[in-house]
Amino acid sequence: MHRTIDFPNIGIHLKSVGDHITVFGFDIAYYGMIIGLGILVGILIAALEAKRTKQNPEDYYDLAIYAVIFAIIGARIYYVIFSWDMYKDQLLSIFNIRQGGLAIYGGVIAAVITVIIFARIKKLSAPLLMDTAGLGLVAGQMIGRWGNFFNREAFGEYTDSFLAMRLPVDAVRGSDITKMMREHMEREGIQADYVVSQTAIFCSTVIVRGTRLDILSQNETYFPYDCDEFTDPFDFEGAVPVHNFEKFFKRKIYTYNCLAGLISYCGYIKGFEVYGEAAVDPDISGLMDRLLEELNPCLEAYFEISGEEQAAFAKKFREKAIRKYEKELDQIKRQQKKLMPELKAAGEKILKGEFQ
């Protein structure tokens, strides 16, 4: 990714602007540091204003503790609600805010509700609290915008004004590139490197002619795609929008395909012909458990996710294999039920010598 940020109309060219620092191997985003600074400055300004207007600054320190906590929760809830397709199949990832996903609108709504409840409990004036804290909120928002600067986001529409800022295409999210920006790039003949993210219909069938290695699994209507690159939704059955697609795709391969290979090859060794039957075999199931004991902690460390999230990710695959097996058995039972009357009738004809 290119890290330049340019202000061409005023002659400022920043060659390398990072978005984090690394301390003992742990990445700390400038965005988080700046947001933290904005919160502290906002609280300090509110406390000073309270002191100037003969109020008790301690009330504002107490309020800040609750408001900050519930504002973060509200911002996350708001973001998840409007990005539900991203989280509905990975519920534990809702709690992983290190991957991003806070909406300022949800934070403000939660903070206002917190102020109202706090004022009622403390028997204070909610409008006075909001009025006093307003200066701090504005200051915090001004500082927080610098976090957006380092993240290359929330930069507005295309402009060629005096303070216009220019960013490399590969440094911003595809969803942030507007129609007007793309039209300008086309008019100017600007060539941008776009990466069409890989999509796949996952299938664990391994076919070797003349053997029983074909486990007879079936392709599923499941088409995950990078919705950060493809901002317009895909309108067909099975299309699933996924944020941070590269990480998702790697986890999919390391988790799902690893276990699918184990089921397929061990199923062949044990003589299974149906993938679902191999998946629920006690020996193979036990091997999967032992494999996951080693695999999951490695993926947790590599992707910086919680153990619970990775365990749920792997569990989803196993349950899918079992459901496939149950579906196959159900189809067999329905077919059997359908054929039984015909077989019974044919048997009676044979016994009576009427069958030709």
What's the overall geometry? extended
| Percent of sequence in beta strands | 5-15%
Strand order of the largest sheet: 1-2
Total DSSP helices: 10
Classification by helices and strands: mainly alpha
Proportion in helices: 55-70%
List the SSEs and their pairings:
Blueprint lengths: L4 E3 L4 E3 L5 E4 L2 E4 H23 L4 H25 L2 H4 L16 H19 L3 H26 L27 H10 L34 E4 L12 E4 L2 H25 L5 H5 L2 H22 L3 H46 L4
Parallel strand pairs: 5-6
Antiparallel strand pairs: 1-2, 3-4
Structure description:
- Helices cover 58% and strands 6% of the residues.
- The protein has 356 residues and is mainly α.
- A hairpin with a 4-residue loop joins β1 (5-7) and β2.
- Residues 194-219 have low confidence and may be disordered.
Describe the structure in brief.
By secondary structure, this protein is mainly alpha-helical.
List keywords for this structure.
N-(1-d-carboxylethyl)-l-norvaline Dehydrogenase, domain 2; mainly alpha; 10 helices; two-stranded antiparallel sheet; 2 domains
